[in-house]
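Researcher: I need the complex structure. Ligand is magnesium ion. Inputs:
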Amino acid sequence: TSLLRFYSSESAAHESAAPHQELVTRFADLPQLGVHERIVNAITKGMKYENMTDVQTMTVNSALAGKDVVAQAKTGTGKTLAFLVPIVQRIIAQDPELADRRRGKARADDIRAIIISPTRELAEQIGVEAQKLCQGTGVVVQTAVGGTQKHAMLRRTRFEGCHLMVGTPGRIHDLLSDPTTGIDAPRLGALVLDEADRMLDVGFKAELEQILKYLPSREDVPRQTLLYSATLPKNVVGLARQFIDPRNFEFVQTIKSD
Ligand code: ADP
Ligand code: MG
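Model: Output:
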């Protein structure tokens, strides 16, 4: 078991050794929270995972309740599925037909969710996991990382479209800021910042702040933001202040685990 600390914008901080009592902790039980069977099956039958990790339990329950989440979580704790489940569910909820389509059809200028990760390798891993989760649905995933494949990526995105974009800060900023790419997110409903401390360490603060300018404002389009970081130095807290909804968030910290 592990000890978790919560802080919510609605309640005082509290700690608990048994935080899971009223929370869904098994993937198979996620339909109780409204998660589509296709998503659940991709995990329980495709990946063959049964129980959620702590960060998955906390993120999925909070995010499906509509909250922004700030989570302190180390590498290897299962963050990828923690954010993919609520994000993909949110895309499907916005557009229920997507769950019943076998093949995706999207536009490049109607991106519904963006996941930002510090390195090319991490972004590509998330992209692969997202593809698995979205298989059998109409949700189209594209991966945008730095390097030589920009034109192939652009061709693919124009041709196939994109609901869920995964990428590095530099490349995502590059694509959103260049009007000739045809890539845009005027109805973006979800944003994930993965490994925020690493993104700041590598010097991506400016790109992250710039990306915000190309997204619709939260007043115009409700947006859910999930931020993960292994450590919480001041610069990460500052980033969270810029991205997270101060009136509707939960903070989760794994204090101890075995
Ligand atoms: P992180 O992003 O926190 O470093 P990952 O999402 O990459 O962690 O997951 C780490 C490993 O754990 C991966 O191999 C993943 O497939 C596996 N994994 C994720 N969630 C579960 C789970 N609920 N049960 C078993 N294994 C899991
Ligand atoms: Mg990860």
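Model: Summary of the prediction. Residues 49, 51-53, 56, 75-81 surround adenosine-5'-diphosphate (ligand 1) (CB under 6 Å).
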